[in-house]
Amino acid sequence: MKKNKQQLDDLINIMKKAGFLNDNKVEAAIRKIPREEFVPTSLKERAYEDTPLSIMKDQTISQPSVVSRMTEWLDIKEGQKILEIGTGSGWQTAILSYLVGHGMIYSIERHSELAEFAKKNLDKLGIKNVKVILGDGSSGFSEESPFDRIIVTAGCKKIPDALLEQLSEDALLIAPVGKFQQSLVLLKKKDHEIVEIKNQPGYVFVPFLGKSAEEK
Ligand code: SAM
Prior knowledge:
single chain; alpha/beta; Rossmann fold; seven-stranded mixed β-sheet; 6 helices; 30% helix; binds S-adenosylmethionine
């Protein structure tokens, strides 16, 4: 336990020195949600490295610095309703769940093994404000739309129109966009228009797949 605390402190220092993790609330969430509970047993020793790690089905738990940047840009408020596409291990989901408090996270994952892995990980921590949905999230989740925030955790060639249509007024959407390398793109719905707020190149994600992900 003491060792994990030291490893977490070291990770946080590394991220801060590299210019990540500038928001106290996001730092509190990263401190609160133990990454070692979201990696396979064989990788627990490496849970506090600032690197993506293999989970299952050729997918990865995202790199802590990237999770912190995406979460900070999303500027989450208590009580919000969030759609996450690409649950993976559920670690990012748990961080979102901490930040929304009494709000709600809908998280869609296309691999059943990962959806089950994430549910188990979230249950272990007693997290109740998350619904993990098995399926193709490329068309969003119209049943619960509109959303205050949408986060896509896999690299999209183009952000599907269906996701933009499921944003409420003043809502934010973040997604890594690009074919081989991605830029993190932050969009806002303002006066019924979609406006780009931030765009930062230099990221590499596993691909976003699915029916609407293939749209030109
Ligand atoms: N942030 C996650 C974590 O902390 O563990 C890791 C997400 S991983 C980088 C991206 C995930 O997106 C993978 O689990 C992949 O199966 C999923 N994915 C890709 N395309 C999808 C789609 N159309 N619908 C749902 N999930 C999708």
